[in-house]
């Protein structure tokens, strides 16, 4: 434990504690009581049930990527830069959403390398500047739907992950992609919190990673990515709950197994591997049928796959309860 644990003394209003965090507190309690054991977690993690239930899709407007548009393709207005950069989930810094921006403001993102390796013919380590040069970012306006039932509309700058994967030539044995975020507790005081298995890890099936909507984002609102949003490079997978979109990525590994993810390893029944946005499958502790758009009052209905129905074929024949 380093001496710098100043974040612990930041008072957190109960309204700012995320449902994700509430789970942890409860689990710590159960653990202290000896109720939750590794065995129970393992059993839950393995209890997936493939069925042949048909995929339910919802009509969706075809996406057209319009640079400089002021709404998403469904007509919803963009969230403001202020909103997008001051209401963040980034547990490496703090669980206080409005506290991330001030804590992350001096986060050092240069030099930065992204290692792309594993089951590929051409493993390569990219400096962030070269990566951006080789794969020029374009604007993508996406809805971001957090598992906590709030959402925003964000104009990202990014490039398709498929382009990077094609460049390293995945072998046919590569079935999944594993994303690892930076481990740097000196800069990220939240990483002193040992109840999380740092570094942040996520994963996608390779066809999900190759889907055209999946991007690596390096900016927003036409500017460099602010540290609180995952600078210098973060994943954005708009049809999945926000926690799948890892920030500050340093490793991309192609593997032949379903990777462990930070959230599914601590709460497999709440934050599963697939975690596709699905209004019909409640989180164990709250409904996912509607959401609160940041900056607006009231609630709006949550759309299947967050409104990106074009991804439905990826899940044909799969039980969409795999969400949790
Ligand atoms: N490394 C890392 N990536 C992360 C998180 C995190 O805590 N650490 N939080 C996730 C969650 S829960 C959400 S909702 C989004 C939030 O992205 P934003 O702050 O850019 O809106 O980032 C995701 N990526
Ligand atoms: Mo989230």
Structure characterization notes:
This protein is an alpha+beta fold. It has one domain (5-323): Sulfite Oxidase, Chain A, domain 2 (Alpha-Beta Complex). The protein is 18% helix and 20% strand. It contains eight helices and twelve strands. The protein has helices at residues 19-32, 38-46, 81-86, 100-104, 128-134, 161-168, 206-210, 262-266; strands at residues 113-118, 124-127, 138-145, 150-160, 176-181, 201-205, 215-220, 223-224, 234-236, 249-255, 290-293, 300-301. The strands form two sheets. Strands 3, 4, 7, 8, 9, 11 and 12 form a seven-stranded mixed beta sheet that branches. It is globular and about 50 Å long. It starts with 18 loop residues before the first helix and ends in a 23-residue tail after the last strand. The relative contact order is 0.19. The chain binds the ligand Nc1nc2c(c(=O)[nH]1)N[C@H]1C(S)=C(S)[C@@H](COP(=O)(O)O)O[C@H]1N2 and molybdenum atom. Residues 88-92, 144, 146, 181, 200, 229-230, 242-243, 245-248 line the site of ligand MTE.
Question: By helix and strand content, what is the structural category?
Answer: alpha+beta
Which strand-content bin applies to the residues? 15-25%
Helix coverage percent:
10-25%
Total strands: 12
Could you give a quick summary of the protein structure above?
This protein is α+β, with helices and mostly antiparallel strands and 324 residues long. The protein is 18% helix and 20% strand.
Please describe the structure with a list of short key phrases separated by commas or semicolons:
single chain; 324 residues; alpha+beta; Sulfite Oxidase, Chain A, domain 2; five-stranded mixed beta sheet; 18% helix; disordered N terminus; binds the ligand Nc1nc2c(c(=O)[nH]1)N[C@H]1C(S)=C(S)[C@@H](COP(=O)(O)O)O[C@H]1N2; binds molybdenum atom
């Amino acid at each position: 434990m380093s001496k710098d644990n100043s974040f612990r003394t930041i008072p957190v209003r109960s309204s700012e504690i995320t449902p994700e965090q509430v789970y942890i507190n409860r689990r710590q309690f159960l653990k202290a009581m000896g109720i939750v054991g590794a065995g129970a977690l393992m059993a839950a993690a393995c209890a997936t049930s493939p069925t042949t239930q048909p995929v339910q899709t919802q009509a969706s407007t075809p996406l057209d990527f319009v640079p400089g548009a002021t709404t998403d393709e469904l007509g919803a207005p963009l969230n403001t830069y202020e909103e997008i950069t001051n209401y963040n989930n980034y547990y490496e810094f703090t669980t206080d959403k409005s506290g991330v921006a001030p804590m992350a403001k001096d986060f050092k993102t240069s030099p930065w390398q992204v290692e792309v390796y594993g089951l590929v013919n051409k493993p390569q380590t990219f400096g962030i500047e070269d990566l951006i040069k080789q794969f020029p970012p374009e604007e993508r306006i996406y809805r971001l739907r957090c598992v906590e039932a709030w959402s925003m509309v964000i104009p990202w700058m990014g490039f398709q992950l498929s382009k990077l994967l094609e460049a390293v030539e995945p072998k046919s044995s590569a079935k999944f992609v594993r994303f690892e975020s930076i481990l740097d507790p000196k800069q990220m005081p939240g990483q002193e919190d040992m109840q999380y298995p740092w570094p942040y890890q996520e994963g996608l099936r390779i066809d999900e990673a190759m889907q055209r909507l999946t991007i690596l984002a390096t900016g927003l609102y036409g500017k460099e990515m602010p540290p609180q949003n995952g600078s210098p490079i973060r994943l954005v997978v708009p049809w999945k709950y926000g926690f799948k979109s890892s920030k500050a990525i340093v490793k991309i590994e192609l593997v032949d197994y379903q990777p462990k993810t930070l959230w599914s390893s601590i709460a497999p029944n709440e934050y599963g591997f697939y975690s596709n946005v699905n209004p019909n499958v409640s989180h164990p502790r709250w409904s996912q049928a509607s959401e609160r758009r940041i900056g607006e009052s009231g609630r709006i209905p949550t759309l299947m796959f967050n409104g990106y129905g074009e991804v439905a074929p990826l899940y044909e024949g799969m039980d969409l309860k795999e969400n949790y």
